[in-house]
Amino acid sequence: PATRACRGLARRCRALHRAAGGAPVEFQTMAVRGRLNRQKIDLRLLCASIPGGNAWYNPEGRLAISNVSGSRAAQHRDQAAISVRVARGAPRSALLSLYPNGAWTVHGARSHKECVRVLRNFIARARRAGTRDGRPAIQYPQGLDVEGPVAVDLVKRDFALGVGLNIMKVIALLENVFPYEYEPEMHAALKVTPAPGSTVMVWHTGAVSVTVTGSKEKGSVEINREVEAAYKAVCGLIWDNIKGVANMSLYRDPGKKSRKK
Fold first, then answer.
1. Helix, strand, or coil here: 162?
2. Contact 146, 33 (CB under 8 A)
3. What is d(CA 146, CA 90) in angstroms, rounded to the nearest whole number?
4. H/E stretch holding 24
5. Cβ(91)–Cβ(108) under 8 Å?
6. Contact present, 80 and 73 (Cβ < 8 Å)
7. Which ranges of 18-166 does DSSP label H, i.e. alpha helix?
8. Which residues of the chain have pLDDT under 50?
9. Rounded CA separation 48/54 (Å)
10. What are the C-alpha distances in Å from 211 to residues 41, 45, 53, 199?
11. Is the pTM of the predicted complex or chain greater than 0.70?
């Protein structure tokens, strides 16, 4: 039985491995940030009057900022969250967080193009926002636009190797190559750091998550290259030694029919 399972595993590995060394991307998400060309925005009025709704105003904010005093701390705690479609007619939305000083972040988009669409959609809606007592939420809304570069905060991709893994054997394989952390009582995944700013999470089910943090100097193309490099560095080594680290108790040969009792 073990020999038959190994033969089935080899067939499946060859099908999944391909030339690139791994399974295709199942899901990707990214976060970007930037600033609007307006320094003062009435978030409460904007959320109440922006066309399309799906906007929330939070005067407390989700950020706990220490060592920041006075109006600057209050300004950064004050924020609005606006749900924006990633494309016309798309069932999926991204979340745009907006601050009174014009700073914004977008979470939940799957590509740089989707981030651009979300920004364009939001700006088009914000230009049509209503007024209160003749006072608009944004001064000169028709000239509203993005100011300066758009920085990528992080890119996260999820993969499925399609083969269960023995985490202890994976650790033995990677421990002399990459820094790692494994605390199963805190988190079930093995955390591997192949390069500064890159993190690869490996689960015993064969799920893999690659996260790369960004900076002002990094563009979306460069970060995507770092994601691919991190995946190939860690998962390429796993694929080269897949028979030694695969958990056969989690593997079932899809070509073998189970016997009925």
1. coil
2. no
3. 23
4. none
5. no
6. no
7. 43-49, 70-77, 112-127
8. 1-7, 9, 16-22, 61-75, 254, 261
9. 10
10. 33, 36, 32, 5
11. no
